[in-house]
Amino acid sequence: MSNSWRTYQIAFFTIVTKEIRRFRRIWIQTLIPPLITTALYFMIFGKMIGDQLAPIDGHSYMDYIVPGLIMMTIITNAYSNVVSSFYSSKFGRYIEELLISPVPHSLILLGYISGGVARGLVIGLLVTGVATLFTDLQLHNLWVSLSVATLTAILFALGGFINAVYAKTFDDITLIPTFVLTPLTYLGGIFYSVAMLPEIWRDISLLNPILYMINTLRYGMLGISDIDLTTAYLVIIAFIVLLYSISLWLLKTGVGIRH
């Protein structure tokens, strides 16, 4: 193993370890709130309202919303981890030390993304544990569930990175989650099937990439989906390639970082 490869390995794992320790250190702020919020969703929408509703595609309403709620926590936490961490490194000006180091920009990007993916998947797993308190959890296809959860975490970690690069104040890092991410997530089919919508709204919903992620996880857990799986994977991977290319270009050119 060459010395440069060994150096890159150490640099990458140092960034990942720092990112994981960061959200573990403030676990009361990062791990507990999603569990409380999801438990409230299960009690209010799943139990109190869901018991009054007819089954959807042969599944109780409680079972139907579980994949969407898990996916929502993965999306928000992968995104918020990277946006807050990278912006803090800009604000504290210690990102400059990393940028002038001999570490490739792609490795720096992958380090931050890995931290966001780790937080998204850890909290997704914890929320899955909370779901078992309210319903008999089903798992139709383990590999589909794991793959779509990981790909979704990667995609929104990249989204958080781009938001952090362009953010000029701490207020800026909340604008995209509030005005873009949250509406798209709630309109992504967490609480309903797009087959229930009028045709025009069904067609508009197909433009929402989060719809493809929620339905793929719903297939992995319940065996049902409104979207073709091949199409869903192609959409998710295409967005990852696009956002990764933009993120790497931003890091190399220093847009929003050096000026």
Summarize the structure.
This protein is mainly alpha-helical and 259 residues long. 75% of the residues lie in helices and 0% in strands. The mean pLDDT is 90.
Describe the structure.
This protein is mainly α and 259 residues long. 75% of the residues lie in helices and 0% in strands. It has helices spanning 3-25, 27-30, 32-49, 61-91, 95-99, 105-131, 142-166, 172-186, 199-205, 209-222, 229-253. The model has no long low-confidence stretch (mean pLDDT 90).
Keywords:
mainly alpha; 259 residues; elongated; 11 helices
End-to-end distance = 38 Å
The secondary-structure class comes to: mainly alpha
| Shape descriptor | elongated
Radius of gyration: 19 Å
Q: Could you tell me the mean pLDDT?
A: 90
Question: Which secondary structure elements does this structure contain, and how are they paired or packed?
Answer:
Elements: H1 3-25, H2 27-30, H3 32-49, H4 61-91, H5 95-99, H6 105-131, H7 142-166, H8 172-186, H9 199-205, H10 209-222, H11 229-253
